[in-house]
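Translate sequence into structure tokens.
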Amino acid sequence: MSDLEAPLRPKRKTQLVDYFVQFRWILVIFVVLPISFTLYFLIYLGDIKSERKSFKQRQKEHDENVKKVVKRLKERDPSKDGLVCTARKPWIAVGMRNVDYKRARHFEVDLAAFRNVLDIDKERMIARVEPLVSMGQITRVTVPMNLALAVVAELDDLTVGGLINGYGIEGSSHIYGLFSDTVVAYEIVLADGSLVRATKDNEYSDLFYAIPWSQGTLGLLVAAEIKLIPVKEYMTLTYKPVIGNLKELAQGYMDSFSPRDLDQDNPAKVPDFVETMVYSPTEAVCMTGRYASKAEAKKKGNKINEIGWWFKPWFYQHAQTALKKGEFVEYIPTRQYYHRHTRCLYWEGKLILPFADQFWFRFLLGWLMPPKVSLLKATQGEAIRNYYHDMHVIQDVLVPLYKVGDALEWVHREMEVYPIWLCPHRLYKLPVKTMVYPEPGFDQNLHQGDTTYAQMYTDIGVYYAPGPVLRGEEFDGADAVRRLENWMIENHGFQPQYAVSELTEKNFWRMFDAELYEHCRRKYGAVGTFMSVYYKSKKGRKTEKEVQEAEQETLETPDADAN
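Result follows.
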């Protein structure tokens, strides 16, 4: 058996839950889709209502809502009440990780009102927004102004707060870094109810660098100031097929955006947007985009593809046509391009509704898509939820760019998941060591894509049912994820915490660096008020006793900075 050949596995016995999953599309079509569409419409009306208010009025409402949060925190009795959590229902979060920590006793703070765009400062090129502002909402406001956030995550429902406290990436991250790297200021309500503004160069600079990846465990985010960039009306997108083995596909991907002469900051050599989809062990399509004006897009001979229409082919399938017809170029309206993966949830829509990519469905019911992830989670039940943990993979594997080929071979050998999404991002060398950080000494031995101030990483998006599951074979999802996490630790990789994790606490802190995070937990009173990031991310039910013991142990551990 070759190194890339998947092991032979015994057949898996069909269980009752398999039929529930197989015919789940009935519930999705008749219940989830209509409710999702209604919710999307109501949210849209609420956003329009907000946008009609002046920035001054929105700021006034924001100040009142912050006062309510401060008052609520000060009402908490640490001796009687549980740890602080937001009042958002566990199933509302966009992500596969179950929010089991809310099953333990907790003290709720309602942040539901924090969903307004507070200001668009065209002079400073800054958008000031509340944490529940979604990507669909912010692009609807900014793109008509020929402005956009420097990093716009693809799915409409993803929120600013989730992308900051967790993880956010887009096809422009090879230039601007992760979503949190584009934030210039955080407004945080701390454990004692005080409101602070943290920037990289004020008295709260340690908090500024500790917030990303902290999962809201240092304080409650109530607003953020985020970098804006100028954009044009269209994206010129080039689809280029790549054929070869996985190492050759990885090299083709690297060459699509990172010059081999390391001239990574040269805009003439580096596209505005980049992503690659690997469709099989021998086939991939690299996509590179550059902003284009309306005048350029409408020149004679140029093809405009408005992919946002409900009846259009799903984007990943449209891109796949390059494997047959060869390289081609088209112009896509910028906002439609930003949200290209929303309607089909990358390719997860194919598993949820196996026929939803067919023309008849797209034409008749495509306008109902996508189902809200939160409703899919709310209607799945415990048995289906456990089934997806064991028989389905949704993981983002963040590894140094030069290790992409190795990672693809590992995923193929152990999981056989296709398509695979590749998206590069810079991981900056910062003044302090944060939870995620570049390889030590990377700037002394630059690889393709690196600069002296940032190492180039890649998100390898593994989202689908593994090959063994599709063939009816046995597959241990928990063990596969556990081995993947160990591989990431050994290769200086990182796992976004929205995903289902099998990490022990020891391995969690082998993957991430704890020093700055734990320092800020103590300094700003988060210990004993907010759950630690490990226990918030940990798989399974968190008992109150387990959490309290972990918090007490943290309090009793001396802080190195205090010595």
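Note: The longest helix spans residues 24-51.
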